[in-house]
Design brief:
Helix content of chain B: over 70%
Oligomer: heterodimer
Number of helices of chain A: 19
Helix content of chain A: 55-70%
Distance between the termini of chain A: 27 Å
Strand content of chain A: 5-15%
Chain lengths: 683, 61
């Protein structure tokens, strides 16, 4: 199959572009200045893909992509740089052309990669964060455990002790996270005080507090008795003073005093009216003749008015002074009676107030005792001592309630105080007993605290172990996968190394170790007879038999070391490359083309002419495939075209225009200036 | 590219790219040993990266 079309890919610098109808051409010359895209146009031959693809035509003239291994593609693409590589001998030349040194070197590099990968053991993994976090938690809990032994035995011993204290059974479980938590919660040692005491404590305190307040603020009964005595004393005193009768008590005395006050006031009023009458009579008598006779208002004797006036004046003066003193005494008596009344009323009010207080206190005492009596009823399960004490107290309370149903007395208060003292004794005893129990409870609480801390520690360790295990499993699996991955890639690299080694051997055997290849090479170099006789005189010296290094020697026996100029090196390498390509093409194992990219770089005109002569003279029999040559040298292209047509090849000359790099993207494309076809010239 | 899911063809391409990057120096250059070391280091780093990613994915899961 022959190359028919080259289609450039999107990554090609001169995309888009195509080169078509190549199937009829044996020798394709791409001619254009530097930068016109010659190498880019030929790049799909070197590595098909995004740079472009090469197509042939099948029997039905349908386009079919021409592919081959990278190895053969590289063998068929001869860049100018490859032609300039140094050559020491024929083996070097042929080997360079066949790429076997590079393949062999790559094989060696890959083998070294395999060794390094096998010795490195792969990457190391970091400790995962969850493991560090759990370790930190564990260490914190461990610090909190202090002197507790961190063993399951210690944990179970504490569990048994607490279970016994709590009236439960401890089976000695392992501190698994899902189990220990519920067990620990059930083993909290609850405080067991005097049963029933706390229920009655408030009532007892109320009873005790009421009695204490009575003592602090004074007895209402005593205050009532004192008020009563003061009232009675006042009544007696007033009865004596005013000669009153005490029968009827305070109200009767008050009534008598008010009556006496009223009588006294009436007397004062009569005296005042008499004085007024006398003053009126004197005024009347003063208005009539003093010689007239008139009866005396006092003795009723008939006498002269002047005499009457004299007597009335004397009588009035006499009665006036005595009356004033008497009236003042009467008024003082009224004031004293008012003061006495006020005293009696005050004493009576005090008595009434004290009586009210005493009644209220009595009522409250009854209420408290009745309330306490209803609350101090023992229930099932209460402490026996407490029940007995309550029974005594209840008896005393009931007795008080019967004896002091409707009055308040000092005796009632005294007995109430006795009841409160009894309640206080019960309260003190209860608190004492609870303190003892609390003291017994504290060690259990400490044990429970240790139990919890140890349980947390053991659970943390359990979890840590589990995580470590899980991580170990995960790490093991990851390591396994990593090793498998590593082994897979190592095997791949080893396989690539082996393939390259075999390829190098195959290339060498196909290209070098055959008399055909060596003869072909020597036939090619003999064509330089006219251009470079020295070069044409190079001969293959020796064979593989007994010679490790078959030198390419000069015909001059004295020239032991091969010294080639750059031009000669290019020619030798070109001969070797074409020899290898010819061998591969004839063997049918290569690609149906040979590409030479700028083969005349670094050559002078003479050497360039020689290469044109040499390359153009290669016949289809010597190199049975299409030859693609790119060049900027039009003279070289013309010579090549002329020589190739004479050698029997159909030549296609493709002229390219200068491609402006960095221009507008739409203008960066392959610019074909012209395509010329030259048929073979048969002599 | 997720290196842990790299196919064999992709790995071959990666390795050949690394070989090609030093091809000139590797065979006929002035410092073939240095070029060889660069290629080896590059390929070993690539392999270790794929293996490290594989292990990291395992821990995350």
């Amino acid at each position: 199959m022959r190359v028919a079309k080259v289609v450039l890919g999107k990554d090609n610098p001169v995309f888009p572009g195509t080169l078509t109808d190549l199937q009829d051409a044996d020798f394709i010359i791409i001619l254009g200045p530097n930068g016109s895209g010659k190498t880019s146009l030929l790049s799909p031959f070197r590595k098909p893909g995004s740079m472009g693809r090469v197509y042939g035509l099948d029997a039905d003239h349908r386009a079919e992509e021409l592919t081959s291994s990278t190895q053969y593609q590289s063998l068929a693409f001869i860049a100018s740089q490859a032609l300039m590589e140094k050559v020491q001998n024929l083996r070097d030349a042929i080997a360079l052309a066949s790429n076997s040194p590079r393949v062999q070197q790559e094989s060696t590099v890959l083998q070294l990669c395999v060794r390094q990968l096998e010795s490195s053991g792969g990457p190391q993994s970091d400790e995962p964060p969850i493991l560090r976090q759990l370790q930190r938690t564990y260490l914190d809990l461990d610090a909190r455990c202090g002197g507790i032994r961190r063993t399951t035995e210690t944990y179970n011993a504490l569990g048994r002790k607490l279970a016994s204290a709590c009236g439960r059974h401890w089976n000695g479980f392992e501190p698994r996270p899902d189990l220990a938590v519920s067990l620990e919660a059930s083993l909290v040692p609850a405080f067991a005080g005097v049963r029933g005491f706390q229920e009655c404590a408030v009532s007892l305190q109320r009873l005790i507090g009421f009695a204490r307040d009575t003592d602090t603020f004074g007895s209402p009964a005593q205050r009532l008795r004192s008020a009563h005595e003061q009232l009675a004393r006042a009544v007696d005193e007033l009865c004596t003073r005013y000669r009153l009768t005490s029968a009827g008590g305070c109200p009767a005395v008050v009534s008598q005093l008010e009556h006496q006050k009223q009588v006294t006031q009436e007397l004062i009023d009569a005296k005042d009216r008499l004085s007024a009458c006398r003053r009126a009579a004197l005024k009347y008598l003063a208005g009539i003749s003093q010689e007239s006779r008139a009866p005396c208002p006092v003795c009723e004797q008939d006498m002269h008015v002047s005499q009457v006036l004299t007597r009335l004046s004397e009588q009035g003066q006499h009665e006036g002074s005595g009356a004033d003193q008497e009236t003042a005494g009467l008024r003082a008596l009224i004031v004293e009676i008012d003061r006495s009344l006020h005293l009696l009323q005050s004493r009576s009010a005090d008595h009434a107030r004290c009586l009210q207080n005493a009644l209220e206190h009595s009522e409250k005492s009854k209420q408290i005792l009745q309330s306490v009596l209803s609350r101090l009823t023992p229930a099932d399960g209460w402490d026996p001592w407490f029940c007995d004490a309550l029974a005594d107290l209840r008896v005393e309370i009931e007795r008080w309630l019967v004896a002091h149903s409707d009055a308040t007395t000092a005796e009632a208060e005294r007995q109430f105080g006795q009841i409160a003292t009894l309640a206080g004794g019960i309260d003190d005893e209860g608190q004492l007993r609870e303190r003892r129990l609390r003291n017994d409870h504290e060690p259990l609480l400490r044990d429970f605290d240790q139990f919890q801390r140890l349980g947390c520690l053991l659970r943390a360790r359990h979890e840590l172990n589990a995580v470590v295990y899980r991580l170990d499993v995960g790490r093991h699996e990851a390591d396994l996968r990593r090793r498998q991955q590593l082994a897979r890639w190592t095997q791949l690299i080893a396989r690539m190394a082996e393939e390259r080694r075999v390829q190098a051997e195959t290339d060498r055997s196909q290209a070098l170790d055959t008399p055909e290849a060596q003869g072909a090479f020597q036939r090619l170099v003999t064509r330089f007879e006219e251009v470079d006789p020295w070069l044409a005189g190079l001969r293959y010296d020796g064979s593989e038999d007994g010679r490790k290094n078959p030198y390419l020697r000069s015909v001059d026996p004295g020239e032991s070391v091969l010294k080639l100029s750059e031009g000669q090196t290019v020619v030798v390498n070109l001969g070797a490359a074409l020899t290898v390509a010819g061998v591969l093409a004839r063997a049918g194992s290569g690609v149906p083309w040979v590409v030479l990219d700028e083969p005349t770089n670094a050559l002078d005109q003479t050497s360039s002419n020689a290469v044109a002569e040499y390359l153009g003279s290669v016949t289809m029999r010597e190199l049975p495939c299409q030859i693609f040559v790119s060049t900027f040298d039009e003279g070289f292209a013309i010579r090549l075209r002329e020589r190739a047509t004479r050698a029997g090849r159909t030549v296609r000359l493709v002229r390219l225009n200068y491609h402006e790099r960095g221009g507008i993207p739409s203008e960066r494309r392959l610019r074909i200036a012209g395509i010329e076809t030259y048929p073979p010239q048969h002599p | 590219m997720v290196v842990s899911n790299m196919t064999e063809a992709e790995m071959i391409e990666q390795i050949e790219d690394r070989l090609a990057s030093e091809a000139g120096q590797l065979c006929n250059g002035d410092r073939p040993l240095a070029a060889g070391k660069r290629v080896i280091d590059s390929i070993v780093a690539l392999i270790q990266e794929t293996c490290q990613t594989t292990q990291g994915e395992s821990q995350e899961s």
